[in-house]
Write a structure and sequence with these properties.
291 residues, two-stranded antiparallel sheet, 50% helix, DNA-binding
Length: 291
DNA sequence: TTGCAGGGGTCAA
DNA sequence: TTGACCCCTGCA
């Protein structure tokens, strides 16, 4: 890593395969917001950061070299060679186009608890409302902290959410998902779902554990594994992925399960990365009606 | 202005 | 396998 100190952050020089707009707009996270100058500001792991692409470099504003190495480098998956992944995926002609479109995507390694809650909220929901709900949960129940003179809020802990009344959670705009969040928090606090002890299990086994949590079906489980556990073989199938897979590969109406199996056969251990390129490509190029 | 369909799925029947 | 589900948004 070619790091350089700046006044208030670090500069990653010649950062290949890193485009903030692609990373933060490909559906994997909800707490990063675009600024008027094209940079993104977000909170993760109790820290706030501003990320800005400057030529071929990336500025990480609001951190230092030590914290960057200890936390953000892992968060942004900087240890992985996306050039090699893209080369592998691009042997498929459809993927070649999708990769060209979202060339700067990286899979974030987010906090499992935050990712679980966020994607329970995401079910049958739209992005603006998901972001609004998560922000309200954080503002009301997350730890408050300041950085660079600005106020930020961390994500509420499992215990905090477990102790809240159903009404308090609902008041954040969760709708009927409030009861899922409440139960999920109780299960995590009680140790019935241990998000930190899943690393020894196969992806299929982790999937089963996660799906034992209320509000977590196949899609949400796959999202949690892909976006917080570096399970790159997990392939979440939502309406956009269904659309793009049927249009370019399957050529017919196909069940969600079959789409996932097809993708995992086709892309193998990189299925999840392929999913992100395809999702971003579909969102950017396919209309509401598909094709 | 009001009404209605539809949204990055999951659950229960 | 199918309909209900919170609530916000876009559109007629």
């Amino acid at each position: 890593m070619d790091l350089e100190n700046t006044d208030s952050g670090v500069l990653l020089r010649n950062a290949g395969n890193f485009e903030p707009g692609h990373i933060f707009e490909c559906g994997q996270c909800f707490r990063w917001n675009a600024m008027p100058d094209g940079s993104y500001t977000g909170v993760a792991g109790g820290r706030a950061l501003r990320v800005q692409k400057i030529g071929s470099h990336v500025l990480f504003d609001g951190t230092n070299r030590r914290e960057f190495r200890e936390y953000w480098a892992g968060y942004f998956d900087l240890g992985r060679d996306y050039g090699r992944i893209k080369k592998e995926l691009c042997r498929d002609p459809v993927m070649a186009r999708a990769v060209e479109y979202g060339y700067g995507i990286r899979i974030l390694k987010q906090d499992p608890w935050e990712t679980l809650v966020s994607f329970i909220i995401s079910a049958n929901n739209g992005i603006p409302r998901i972001k609004k709900t998560i922000e309200m949960l954080c503002r009301r129940y997350g730890r408050k902290f300041t950085a660079n003179g600005k106020t930020y809020y961390d994500f509420p802990t499992p215990l905090c959410l477990a102790l809240l009344s159903r009404e308090d959670i609902t008041a954040c705009g969760c709708g009927y998902r409030a009861k899922y969040l409440s139960k999920a928090a109780e299960m995590v606090v009680a140790g019935k779902v241990d998000l930190e002890s899943l690393s020894e299990m196969s992806t299929g086994e982790v999937r089963e554990v996660l799906m034992g949590t209320p509000g977590v079906g196949p899609k949400v489980a796959d999202c949690v594994m892909l976006f917080s556990m570096a399970r790159l073989d997990a392939f979440p199938v939502d309406v956009w992925i269904k659309r793009v897979m049927e249009h370019y590969y399957l050529k017919k109406d196909t069940s969600l399960n079959e789409i996932r199996r097809h993708a995992q056969n086709r892309f193998g251990p990189l299925a999840g990365v392929a999913q992100q390129y395809l999702f971003y490509y579909a969102r950017g190029t396919m209309g509401q009606t598909g094709a």
